[in-house]
Amino acid sequence: MELRYWLTRGGLIGLIVLGVGGRVLMRVVAHLEHRPLFVFTAKGTLTVVFAGTVAGLIAGFIYYLVRRFLRQPWQRTAVFIGICELVSWRGVHSLLRVPQLMFMGLALVYLIIIDTMGRRMHS
Predict the structure, then answer these.
(1) Helix crossing, 42-69 with 73-92: angle to 10°?
(2) CA neighbor of 67 nearest in space, from 58, 77, 55
(3) Where does residue 34 fall: left (phi above 0), alpha (psi -120 to 50 degrees), or beta otherwise?
(4) Fewer Cβ close by (within 10 Å): the C or N end of the chain?
């Protein structure tokens, strides 16, 4: 039951924060790099939203595992954020510095939301 909870929450929040938020952030980066502003495509948007949802599912699963093996909240937070930010870094390491930091910040916002939900649940 708890696994389903974290997969559902991770996926839904990933869809919103990582998927929709990632797509919006991509537009901001394009604007900063002086690219054309109106290049949204349905296929591109669906791809990014789907990728955000899948990333959310994976992070939800990671949180579920970390929660099972680490009982101290501060340890859980440190391990969860460390693992997920390393995975995120792998995805953005080839970008320019400012977009890297922006996407890593977006990932951190997502991770803090998930961790906050976990801290509010009964252990």
Answers:
(1) 150
(2) 77
(3) left
(4) N
Tell me the two tokens of residue 28.
Answer: 């901001």
Length of the chain: 123
Question: How far, in Å, are 28, 85, 110 from residue 113 at the CA level?
Answer: 22, 14, 5
- Tokens representing residue 25 in the block: 């952030």
Type of residue numbered 74: W
Helix, strand, coil % over all residues of the chain, rounded to 5? 85, 0, 15
> pLDDT of 52-77, one tens digit each?
999 999 999 999 999 999 989 999 99
CA-CA distance, 79 to 29, in Å (whole number)? Answer: 29
Q: Are 76 and 114 in contact (CB under 8 A)?
A: no
Query: What are the tens digits of pLDDT across the range 4-31?
Result: 999 999 999 999 999 999 999 998 988 8
